UniProtKB/TrEMBL annotation:
GO terms for biological process: methylation. It holds the Pfam family Ubie_methyltran. This is 2-phytyl-1,4-beta-naphthoquinone methyltransferase, chloroplastic. InterPro entries: SAM-dependent_MTases_sf (IPR029063), UbiE/COQ5_MeTrFase (IPR004033). The keyword S-adenosyl-L-methionine applies. PANTHER family: 2-METHOXY-6-POLYPRENYL-1,4-BENZOQUINOL METHYLASE, MITOCHONDRIAL, METHYLTRANSFERASE. The keyword Methyltransferase applies. PROSITE patterns: SAM_MT_UBIE (PS51608). It comes from Ziziphus jujuba.
Length: 132
C-alpha cells in the first residue's frame, strides 16, 4: 500500500528519515517546516546519506498553521518537538485533523505541563503544554 505521511515541523529531518524507511519506496513522506535553512540541511542530508528509500521524501516549506494540502490527504502525521513551538496550538491541531484521512493516526512527541512535582521540576525549562 502506498502510504502518504507528513512530518510536521521536520527541522533537519530526523523523523522524516525514519518514516521514509517505514513507508518504503512505494510510499511518500513529506517533511514540512517554515525554515528554509533547516530544509536545506535536511535536503543535504538526504543527498549525503543516499539511501534508495530516501528518494520518497519531499521537503516542503510551509506553515503548520495553514497547511498547503487538501482535506483528508495523509495516512499518518508525526510532529516531534514542534507543537510547543507553534504560536497557535489549537489551530495547528485543527490543521492536522483537516489533512488526515479519517481513521488515520497522528503521533505527537513533546513535553507537557505536569502537575506531578518531580516531573514538573525536570521539565520546567521546556514545559509548554496545551494552555487553551
Ligand atoms: C525543536 S525543532 C524540531 C525539529 C524536528 N522535528 C526534530 O525533532 O528534530 C522545531 C521546528 O518547528 C519549526 N516550526 C515552528 N513553528 C512552525 C510553523 N508554524 N510551521 C512550520 N514549522 C514550524 C521550526 O522551524 C523548527 O524546525
Amino acid at each position: 500500500m502506498e502510504d502518504s505521511v507528513l512530518d510536521l515541523c521536520c527541522g533537519s529531518g530526523d523523523l522524516a528519515f525514519l518514516l521514509s524507511e517505514k513507508v518504503g519506496s512505494q510510499g511518500k513522506v513529506i517533511g514540512l517546516d517554515f525554515s528554509k535553512e533547516l530544509l536545506s540541511v535536511a535536503s543535504s542530508r538526504q543527498k549525503l546519506l543516499s539511501k534508495p528509500c530516501y528518494e520518497n521524501i519531499e521537503w516542503v516549506e510551509g506553515d503548520a498553521l495553514d497547511l498547503p494540502f487538501s482535506d483528508g490527504y495523509f495516512d499518518g502525521i508525526t510532529m516531534g518537538y514542534g507543537l510547543r513551538n507553534v504560536v497557535d496550538k489549537r489551530r495547528a491541531m485543527q490543521e492536522i485533523f483537516r489533512v488526515l484521512k479519517e481513521g488515520s493516526r497522528v503521533s505527537i512527541l513533546d513535553f507537557n505541563k505536569s502537575n506531578v512535582p518531580i516531573t514538573a521540576l525536570i521539565q520546567s525549562p521546556l514545559s509548554l503544554g496545551m494552555d487553551d
